[in-house]
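Reply to thread "Modeling small-molecule complexes from scratch"

Following up on the discussion above, here's a worked example others can learn from. I took a protein sequence and the SMILES for zinc ion and predicted the complex. Inputs first:
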Amino acid sequence: MEQNVTESVPLRAHPLALPTPTPVRWNRSARARRVSLRIDPRAGEVVVTLPMRSGRRAGLQLLTTHAAWVKERLASLAPAVPLSPGQEVNLGGLPHVIRHDPALRGPATLAPGAILVGGDGEFVARRVADFLRAEGRRRICERVAVHAARLGVKAKRITLKDTRSRWGSCAPDGSLAFSWRLVMAPDWVLDYVVAHEVAHLRELNHSARFWTLVTALTPDRDAAQEWLRKNGPALLRVG
Ligand SMILES: [Zn+2]
């Protein structure tokens, strides 16, 4: 059982006071054994998880002890990018401006350097998000087909998710899952993540044999890993 409440907590008393107000999400968890802190990069919040029997006091204490860490982590988050008209969103690593024209009908479409979205203004974000997911699915499935053919393997299923910590995964039954947010990364980064997961269809481990397969599928392994380390967190701030 989990219960989530978001609120702002003023922590002025401590010398290492957090920026006021600090967005804190209180999370009560029946599974938690102890009080813990983490940053939710998507929401731009600190999440304090409390076991059922702990009071908020214990959470506030932990927050205060780690105030410097929390402050630094929140400050280093990339700015949030809402999917609203006039905003730029990367597609395949290239900037595309969101253009809203209420007269347009049907789902959002791609134009050079732009994503065109019609209909009521209040649904723009939803429509752009749907478009990005669909475009992500299309590009990822295309690359899965290419790499799977090279290795003579077949993915059982391809699922797009909104994961926080993994860009892709491969289940023992041969199902692959990817973050839809990869659609915003340069093509060669998306391609590396796909090659990595497809290679797991042959080697479900990170052995030398596995890495040999990955290297045969893509020359961009190191650069792509480095790109994701550096730029991945910003992708989580979109939408
Ligand atoms: Zn792996």
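What I'd highlight from this example: Residues 124-151 form the longest helix (28 residues). Residues 9-17 have pLDDT under 50 and may be disordered. Questions welcome below.
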